[in-house]
């Protein structure tokens, strides 16, 4: 699957496409870094019903567990991204996974909820760093035309692997204190991911996939120094600001936290049986991300820029409809729920290839890591924490089904409406980045 490097050495001054070496191998290695604490497919929530039974917990505790795990991402995400700029992205990813694995294993030894909460939060604080760094690496590895496809494969493989690993870990719940074996396994997955990064990952370099910079050496790309002021300037990009608002309204992410708990507490399936819906969810998510990435590339050719916006809006509406029919009615047997979880997985899978590509297209290469840190580990975290804490508290009194209706149906439709603003500002922001990169190229060629 490794993309072949073009052997001919490009002549500086000629604007030509270039395949970044090792890009597909890097993509596969990076999936392991994001499996455990990725918001699209978390593993800890899969075994929570058994943890709840062993430690006498409820949905409110699950909300707190998930929320704190995300709150720590607010300082941790940008901090890891800053560290990557100092010691290198490869070294940072190895450190992230080894530290995360250590705390994940420690969570398996927890004797009460407080200990579990602390160690799970520390694991999240470590693993969350892989999210913005991985997304920035993908943006440096694939040009804008192929970025949606790459992101689709990346998040598709994450969910696909999680959909099988999750039920396998859930099998431990049949044992006495089996959830502990589950947490130890999660810690082991983190450590294994770090070893794979150390052995196989090769950094492409910042801006390596940009047509204007690809044939220039990294020292000649005239990348601006990342400062506090330049990071703050990201917030002034209209499209990015609108995407951050949209992230606050992304209620579909709630299914990863409360989905299994909903099937156990309100539909009365066992933990192991309920976890089987993760398989169709993951397979459909994979289909949504990969198929969506290819469709997005086609749509970009037919309706440049604005096609991405329409696609992203459609994804919100599709998920809302699937969530309504999948969670607001009672069905007999796990099979019908598996079908609706598959539809929700497909709807959720449509998102990453579009929203990550939109963010990457409106931000300069050297600032993408921090942009993804803000987008995925700060603003997503704010919404995630509010959803988790609010949903956990409300679910105790109103039931998870009611919470799902307002957050995964109504709020998603509102999100689709908010995204309409991108039709106006997104094309302008893309043009601004393109003009800046072309100017840098001209300056580099003039300097020789």
TrEMBL record:
Cellular compartment(s): Cell membrane
Molecular functions per Gene Ontology: transmembrane transporter activity
Residues passing through the membrane, by range: 92-110, 116-138, 150-175, 181-201, 240-260, 272-297, 309-327, 333-350, 371-391, 403-423
SUPFAM superfamilies: MFS general substrate transporter (SSF103473)
Acyltransferase recorded as keyword: no
Pfam families: MFS_1
Domain of life: Bacteria
GO cellular component terms, A-Z: plasma membrane
Keywords: Cell membrane, Membrane, Transmembrane, Transmembrane helix
Protein's name according to its UniProt entry: MFS transporter
């Amino acid at each position: 699957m490794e993309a072949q490097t073009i052997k001919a050495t490009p002549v500086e001054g000629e604007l030509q496409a270039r395949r970044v070496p090792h890009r597909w191998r890097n993509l596969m290695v990076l999936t392991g870094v994001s499996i455990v604490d990725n918001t699209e497919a978390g593993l800890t929530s899969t075994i929570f019903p058994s943890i709840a039974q062993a430690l006498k917990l409820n949905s409110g505790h699950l909300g707190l567990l998930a929320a704190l795990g995300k709150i720590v991402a607010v300082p941790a995400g940008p901090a890891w991204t800053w560290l990557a700029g100092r010691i290198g992205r490869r070294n940072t990813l190895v450190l992230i996974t080894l530290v995360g694995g250590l705390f994940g294993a420690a969570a398996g030894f927890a004797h009460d909820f407080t200990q579990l909460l602390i160690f799970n939060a520390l694991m999240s604080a470590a693993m969350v760093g892989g999210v913005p760094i991985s997304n920035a690496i993908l943006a440096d590895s694939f040009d804008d035309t192929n970025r949606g496809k790459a992101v689709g494969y990346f998040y598709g493989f994450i969910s696909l692997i999680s959909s099988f690993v999750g039920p396998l870990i859930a099998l431990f719940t049949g044992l006495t204190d089996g959830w502990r074996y589950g947490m130890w396994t999660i810690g082991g997955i983190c450590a294994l991911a770090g070893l794979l990064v150390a052995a196989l990952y090769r950094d492409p370099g910042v801006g390596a996939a940009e047509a204007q910079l690809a044939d220039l050496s990294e020292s000649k790309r005239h990348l601006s120094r990342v400062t506090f002021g330049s990071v703050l300037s990201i917030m002034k990009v209209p499209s990015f600001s609108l995407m951050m608002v949209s992230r606050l309204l992304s209620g579909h992410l709630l299914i990863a936290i409360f989905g299994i708990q909903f099937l156990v507490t309100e539909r009365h399936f066992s933990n192991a049986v309920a976890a089987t819906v993760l398989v169709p969810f993951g397979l459909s998510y994979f289909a949504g991300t990969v198929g969506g990435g290819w469709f997005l590339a086609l749509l970009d050719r037919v309706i440049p820029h604005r096609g991405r916006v329409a696609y992203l809006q459609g994804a919100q509406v599709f998920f809302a409809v699937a969530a309504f029919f999948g969670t607001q009615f009672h069905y007999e047997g796990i099979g019908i729920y598996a079908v609706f979880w598959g539809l929700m997985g497909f709807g959720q899978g449509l998102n990453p290839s579009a929203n990550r590509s939109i963010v990457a297209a409106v931000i300069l290469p050297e600032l993408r890591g921090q942009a993804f840190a803000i987008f995925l580990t700060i603003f997503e975290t704010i919404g995630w924490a509010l959803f988790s804490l609010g949903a956990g508290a409300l679910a105790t009194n109103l039931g998870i089904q009611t919470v799902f209706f307002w957050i995964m149906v109504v709020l998603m439709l509102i999100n689709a409406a908010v995204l309409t603003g991108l039709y106006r500002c997104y094309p302008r922001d893309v043009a601004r980045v393109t003009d800046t990169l072309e100017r840098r190229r001209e300056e580099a060629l003039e300097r020789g």
